[in-house]
Structures are given as C-alpha cells and as structure tokens.
Amino acid sequence: MQDKIRELTNEIEGYQVSNNDELEAYRLKFISRKGVMGELFAGLKDVPNEDKKAMGQALNVLKNEAQDKFKELITSLEESTAGAKSHDHPDLTLPPVPDQLGTIHPLSKTQQRIIEIFEQIGFSVAEGPEIEDDFHNFSALNFPENHPAREMQDTFFIEKNPDMVLRTHTSSVQVRVMETTKPPLRKIMPGRVYRNEAISARAHCFFHQVEGIYIAENVSFVDLKQTLYHFAKEMFGQQSKVRFRPSYFPFTEVSAEMDVSCGLNEPGTCEICGGRKNVCKGTGWVEICGAGMIDPQVLENCGIDPEKYTGFAFGMGVERIAMLKYNIEDLRLFSENDIRFLRQFTPMG
To answer: E strands along 72-171, which residues?
Structure first.
C-alpha cells in the first residue's frame, strides 16, 4: 500500500488539465468516494493492526494533497479560460441582437390610469412615507388607542419603536395633506400599503391603494357619488354598472362601499370578467372602493374648521381593479415576477 501511495502522490503532483472534462476525470479518480481514495481507505481493514495508525495518517495526507491539487487545477483552468476570452474579438458577421422592448407592469399601468382619470377632474397627486407614526396612521383618523376598529387592520409594527408602523392605508397621507393645506383641496394619494394577512389568490401582505379627498364649502354625498360614477365609467367602460352599499369606516360618516357589476347577470355580455366567478364569488358584483363623508372630528384633528368645510374621501385597491381590467384570477401573480405573466402585457399598451 505504501508503494501505491507514493505512486499516487507523484501522479497528483504532476497532474495537469486543459478543459473541464479532464478536471472532472481528476475529480472522479482522486476525490470521489468511488475513486482510488475510497479503495485505499477500504483496504485499511487488511493492514496489520500495528501499521494501521501510520497507514491511516499517510492516507489522510494523500487525501488532503488531492483536494488541494483539485482547487489548484480549478483556479488554473479558470484563469486560462479568462485569458483566452480576453483575446477574443466579436464576430462582426453575426446578425445584430434584436431590440426587445420591455413592458409596463399591469399594476403600474392600472395605477397610472386611475391617476389620469382623477387628474382630468382636478385632482393632483400627494405622496407620503410608508413607515408612519401612530397619529397619522390611526389616531387622527378616529382610531383611538385600544379602539376595536384598529382590529380591522392587522398591522406590522416597527419592533424597536412600537409607535411606528408600516402604513396600513394611504389615508395617512390624507392627514398630512389636511394638516398642511388650506381648503379647498382636491388630492389623490397613490402608494403601497402593508397588512399582516395570509397570502392567497385574493389577499397579500402588501398591496397598492389610491385614495382621495375633496374638501371645500358645501361638499355633499352627491358630489362623492358623481365623482366615483365618473371614475367607474372611465375605467371600465360606459356599459359598466355601479352600486353603493352602506358600510362603516371610523374616519367617515356616512360611509359606503362601491361595487362594479362583473356581468354574471348577463353572461358573456360584460368585458370586465367574461362571466368568471372567481373574483365576485358568484354574486355578480365586485367591491372596488370604500368611501364616505369625512367625519367632522377628523377635520378638527387636522386643523380644519368642520363648521365651515365638509369633504369626502375614498380609497380603492389597485390590484382589485387590475384583476378586473385584465382578467387576472390570482393576485399573487402581480408580485411573483413570472416572465410568462409579464410578457402578456404589450409595451406601452
């Protein structure tokens, strides 16, 4: 066995490779358990007991030398390959790489369209921080501490500062606008929000909203309804049907939710969903927006005289509208970066 070890030592020291196939052959012979090393270690059982310790040490030395040589061969091969590539010249006879335009993400397209619709009737965009303090995210909006309404939104809190949260809605930007802008004001607030929810085809732990407010003298619920009617017709087409349902939000009174018909009452006639039932659960209606008249206490919290001014607020989920607009059945597709999904949307279309 000692003669075999010396023979393999000399072979390892003089081994050279010029390509990956030769490197793999070395690995199989000297590194792999099924190579010569495995055979030598298996042969230790036949060595006399008084010689086993010395022979085992010799085999370990040989094994380490083989592994060190393997690393050396890898480095040498990489350097030689890189050197060869550095001297390569491009083949000027090859055809040019075809231009491939990227596509705008469906959420970006949808959000931009929402903004365009509201800008056409006088709204302008306002933005705010995604990490928000308790006052702007909750207290100013009639969410007092320990109020049950806070349980409506499962919040991500900042561990080192429990008074800071990942905003649960872009309503926090409404508060900042009302604090710094004198009425009349007409603003929309697009952005990403976060809630600690189970991820499914209909929900995610982060999503996108566009909220809006209009505050002036003598603003009424009729103004709110006509604004949202206009939005629905522009977004989904003049054939779309809209309904309002009573609802509850801590920061508005009266409050309502707006639904859009998905056409199940007249199968095959609606361009929104084509008769699918996965989004509306078979009801024929999909909720896309929450809205209401701003509670006078919220106006007062933000330094606006509720005796002089009234206003309305609304908020809608961009993902929900994009699902309806583009016939998308699973909300998770928006954030999985599946190239097959993204390629379905034409450039700038």
So the answer is: 124-125, 131-133, 157-158, 161-166
